[in-house]
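Section: Multi-chain targets

For targets with more than one molecule, the full set of components is provided together so that the structure can be written out for the assembly as a whole rather than chain by chain. Components appear in the order listed by the source. The example entry contains two components.
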Amino acid sequence: MGDMFRSEEMALCQMFIQPEAAYTSVSELGETGCVQFRDLNVNVNAFQRKFVTEVRRCDELERKIRYIETEIKKDGIVLPDIQDDIPRAPNPREIIDLEAHLEKTESEMIELAQNEVNMKSNYLELTELRKVLENTQGFFSDQEVLNLDSSNRAGGDNDAAAQHRGRLGFVAGVINRERVFAFERMLWRISRGNVFLKRSDLDEPLNDPATGHPIYKTVFVAFFQGEQLKNRIKKVCTGFHASLYPCPSSHNEREEMVRNVRTRLEDLKLVLSQTEDHRSRVLATVSKNLPSWSIMVKKMKAIYHTLNLFNMDVTKKCLIGECWVPTNDLPVVQKALSDGSAAVGSTIPSFLNVIDTNEQPPTFNRTNKFTRGFQNLIDAYGVASYRECNPALYTCITFPFLFAVMFGDLGHGLILVLFGAWMVLCERKLARIRNGGEIWNIFFGGRYIILLMGLFAMYTGLVYNDVFSKSMNLFGSRWFNNYNTSTVLTNPNLQLPPNSSAVGVYPFGMDPVWQLADNKIIFLNSFKMKLSIIFGVLHMVFGVCMSVVNFTHFKRYASIFLEFVPQILFLLLLFGYMVFMMFFKWFSYNARTSFQPETPGCAPSVLIMFINMMLFKNTEPPKGCNEFMFESQPQLQKAFVLIALCCIPWMLLGKPLYIKFTRKNKAHANHNGFSGNEENAGGAHGHDDEPMSEIYIHQAIHTIEYVLSTISHTASYLRLWALSLAHAQLSEVLWQMVLSLGLKMSGVGGAIGLFIIFGAWCLFTLAILVLMEGLSAFLHTLRLHWVEFMSKFYEGMGYAFQPFSFKAILDGEEEE
Amino acid sequence: MEVLLTIIFFTIFWAVVAKYGPILFTKQPHDDLVRCIFLLTAVVCWLFWLCCYLAQLNPLLGPKLNGNTIRIIASSWGNPIKEG
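Its structure, encoded as tokens over all components, is:
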């Protein structure tokens, strides 16, 4: 059978690789990505492994690359996209060059950054000084005559004179704006209100030299009297991280100083821009190679990590590894190994031994871009046990179909198809989108599911004859009005009689007349409920039958008779019979007959009949009608229920008794000197060491679960009807409440109104009917598959095959 | 007769889809997958159509229409109301 039918056969292999060829061989294996290595050094901690120094080296390289990358990002240089030519893992020798190159670049970058910070802080100081000089202009202009002591001139020998004269002194500086008020209060406190502070906010923010963040600052000048106060003020300034600048009090000197500072600033700017240029030149050259270096280093690190899982031979002559390989891929692995050896010119070939094991191998389903989405839906429930039947194969169709039963609308289906088809047709281009967000990734990953869901929704919409809640009269309605004009005019509502008005059957889908009828829901409900039960029972029968495939594959033939037969009998005799009654009712009752028991008035309800059958009860039929549809029905029903009831103890006791019996036999056989082959003891599979009491309890749980679930699961399929009804009603309400308002307007205003209303209608159609309803139908379908379908045969106790693959590693990093 | 012919026609149609649909995809390596997909599609689509068809085969109740709808149907679907 095909690839998807069950997971691939796996082989546990032992790999013997020459130490010199190990690196290249593992690199080749990483490129093919079909080998899952097992850790042979579980007891050795990460720091004591063989290739730990190499891994450290790679870590160091990665750190450097990350550093340079952040610098590049800071400068806004775009890294080239290299999704098309991913480099191979580098030679261990090549890596020395790379290491040296990165080392050089990094130290250069660090040096440049250091210089830049120095120069920038220099620049900041000068700018602040300039601002101080410019801003203090306003403070001083009216006081210039006083010839104040500036802080810089308040030198030693002037002190006494200054104090003596009681002149005012001042300090000027710059402080962070948010600290100004605290600063001012502090000054006021220490001087008991004897300091006069003037300040002016700088409009433009200055840049912090280290981080580049903008900081807002304020220029201040504090006037005071006396030397003591001055020292205190200076201390406060240091405490508040205010920088003080010399500021001459005479106007001319200030002018002179401002000029001086400006020229120095110009020079500094020039130097800064040259440094900047140099930096971006260096970064630009590095940026061309950086992505490929980064990939190379990641690959190298992955290789050493893998080599750490290997075991050293006692003679230290070769490395031994253990791995799971899909049997189909064994030649590929062989080739990769020989390529690896050839690459280093090793004379001794590496070889691969398949070894026997009792362990359960990992589950590997080879998927393509179409089946991957469906496989993910199944794996989300539980990874299949090894070689178990894979429901994903059938899910490819049953999933979109059951979705479509709930989402049946040609128009809404078309929207889904267009969206899905766009993603499928442009998938190469769209696959390059790396940062589309989680929601986009989900939609894109499920593009084929969306496309199929849309296609099936279009088909079911066509059968429901529902396009945005309107019908199409493609083949000509088969219902004709026989009433004459006066009847039509006098009666507000008329029901067309089915015996004379219906001529033939509308060949494909629902007759369009139903969409216009007032009793549409009554008719559609009866149809859709039956439809849900029919498909539900079919789906479950299919699921139960799948268990046979598993039983035959695992050679548990006894289970077919002890589990499958009673299960399928139980399901078919009760619910399969109900489905039969539905079809029978469609055929046997009609309005055209004159035979009383077959007229519409006598048609019994299938559900009531089913309930009566289960309870062995009778309902009195109306006059002239039969209670049953055909003659021997009551006897048949009784027999069915009795057989179904017999199935319960059959399920409950069959398997435990069988296990008990085989165990006794085995013990007997062993006693007689036969050493029986224990693993192949048929039905006792997996129960070899379980005590009997537990087996009984397990089987009782299984039986109760199955019997109850048959009923509850059948009822659960009614969600197909419920959601389909809700969808159809919602879309009808939207049409009537929104779009038809616009269609009823007239004139120019009406045209504009319709334009707006149409927009609203489109929005609601997309947001509510397609997106929300689609999501809800999707989730219900998922549930129907996981719970109702898969519980019938699926074990899901396996673990996924996770091959060592560079592609997976690189993709995984990007997602993080 | 017409009923039988319709059922036979659609049954044959879906049988053809199930049998010859995969031919469109023979180049694909996943041959069994394609066959399974077409078979399942045909089965579910056929059964879905069949249920809808049989549900209308012997209608037990007729559509209840309002006077306006009857008149609109009469004029646009071309079966005029009888005089009288």
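Chain B is about 65% helix and 5% strand.
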